[in-house]
From TrEMBL:
<dbReference type="InterPro" id="IPR036052">
    <property type="entry name" value="TrpB-like_PALP_sf"/>
</dbReference>
<feature type="domain" description="Tryptophan synthase beta chain-like PALP">
    <location>
        <begin position="8"/>
        <end position="299"/>
    </location>
</feature>
<keyword id="KW-0663">Pyridoxal phosphate</keyword>
<dbReference type="GO" id="GO:0006534">
    <property type="term" value="P:cysteine metabolic process"/>
</dbReference>
<protein>
    <submittedName>
        <fullName>Cystathionine beta-synthase</fullName>
    </submittedName>
</protein>
<dbReference type="InterPro" id="IPR050214">
    <property type="entry name" value="Cys_Synth/Cystath_Beta-Synth"/>
</dbReference>
<dbReference type="GO" id="GO:0009069">
    <property type="term" value="P:serine family amino acid metabolic process"/>
</dbReference>
<dbReference type="InterPro" id="IPR001926">
    <property type="entry name" value="TrpB-like_PALP"/>
</dbReference>
<dbReference type="GO" id="GO:0044272">
    <property type="term" value="P:sulfur compound biosynthetic process"/>
</dbReference>
<comment type="similarity">
    <text>Belongs to the cysteine synthase/cystathionine beta-synthase family.</text>
</comment>
<dbReference type="Pfam" id="PF00291">
    <property type="entry name" value="PALP"/>
</dbReference>
């Protein structure tokens, strides 16, 4: 044990934990990499640190600089935390559908939050893309990370997440499963694992039904947050995934609630989605006891207490079956 000099030193080196109860008879070992152990609470701490390091090195971020990014979620928290440690200011532009709790988290880290209307076209001057572009152009010393195209996102996973998994499994990993949002996690981690294993590790993407990655011909809305897209971001390397498993909102939410109730893992909906994809893939391909599947769980369930873990919200949004199959009769009746 030691006294650490800063919180940034604690980013990464998250644990791998074997799943014991939600694997439904799958013979392969399924282990999860729990990214809520990062100091900002998600895998996005990794990209925030590397994006800021690179911007400093390249002279894009100087003392007194300001980080401007359109984000409401984990990337904002990661950037705000690292920026605060290094003395930078942060401005996040969020659509008004983002709830007050999420805005409050960003403000708590010292960020300023600019709220923009959700129901406008992306090229409308009021849209959150355009407002963040304008702020990045007009604020002196502003730097816009742009997580969808910044190569340091995937690189952070190539340099940290991939090697951590390879070492923790002593090279025994046979499959890696991760959800795809910007694509940084699967692209960087997947590339490392393929190189380290001479192509022996199979990379499986997990994607919400309605997103472009699993079916470009049927892109529509879905409920799971943080994953799926309606375009191909530059951070996503389309050559890495060997297979993409499509998961419905209901399947993802069922597994998210089972992970909390049966494994003691309070994680977010994209984590439930990734585990559901891993179990489905292992069954479909009849993986045996010699195989080791590693699944990345991006964040904590704390951010979803008002949605996935709220029975009323679940029932109102069409997930009554999920509530019924994850509820137990009260011991008090
Ligand atoms: N899950 C959550 C909750 C996220 O915030 C993100 C990032 N958008 C992802 C999964 C996907 O990670 P990536 O952007 O690296 O594909």
């Amino acid at each position: 044990m030691a006294i650490h000099n800063s919180l940034s030193e604690l980013i990464g080196n998250t644990p791998l934990i074997k799943l014991n109860h939600v694997t439904d008879g799958v013979k392969a070992t399924i282990a999860v990499k729990v990214e809520y152990f990062n100091p900002g609470g998600s895998s996005k701490d990794r990209i925030a640190a590397r994006i800021i390091d690179a911007a400093e090195r390249e002279g894009k971020l100087k003392p007194g600089g300001v980080i401007v990014e359109p984000t409401s979620g984990n990337t904002g928290v990661g950037l705000a935390m690292v920026a605060q440690q290094r003395g930078y200011r942060t401005v996040f532009v969020v659509p008004d559908k983002v709830n007050e709790t999420k805005r409050a988290v960003l403000r708590a880290y010292g960020a300023e939050v600019v709220v923009t209307p959700t129901d406008v076209e992306p090229d409308d001057p009021r849209s959150y893309y355009r407002v963040s572009d304008r702020l990045a152009e007009t604020i002196p010393g502003a730097f816009k990370p742009n997580q969808y195209s910044n190569p340091n996102g995937p690189l952070s996973h190539y340099e940290t997440t991939g090697p951590e998994i390879w070492e923790a499994t002593a090279g025994q990993i046979t499959h890696f499963v991760a959800g795809i949002g910007t694509g940084g996690t699967i692209s960087g981690t997947g590339r490392y694992l393929k190189e380290a294993s001479n192509g022996a590790v199979t990379i499986v993407g997990a994607d919400p039904e309605g997103s472009i990655y699993s079916d470009p011909t049927n892109v529509h809305g879905y409920s799971i947050e943080g994953v799926g897209e309606d375009f191909y971001p530059a951070a996503y390397d389309q050559t890495i995934a060997d297979a993409i498993e499509q998961v419905t909102d209901a399947e993802a939410y069922l597994m998210t609630r089972r992970l909390a109730g049966e494994e003691g893992l309070l994680v977010g909906g994209s984590s439930g989605m990734a585990v559901a994809a891993a179990v489905a893939y292992a069954k479909k391909h009849d993986l045996d006891a010699s195989q080791t599947v590693v699944v990345l769980l991006p964040d904590s369930g704390r951010s979803y207490l008002e949605k996935i873990f709220n029975d009323d919200w679940m029932i109102d949004n069409g997930f009554a079956d999920v509530v019924a199959s994850t509820s137990r009769p009260s011991i008090l009746d």
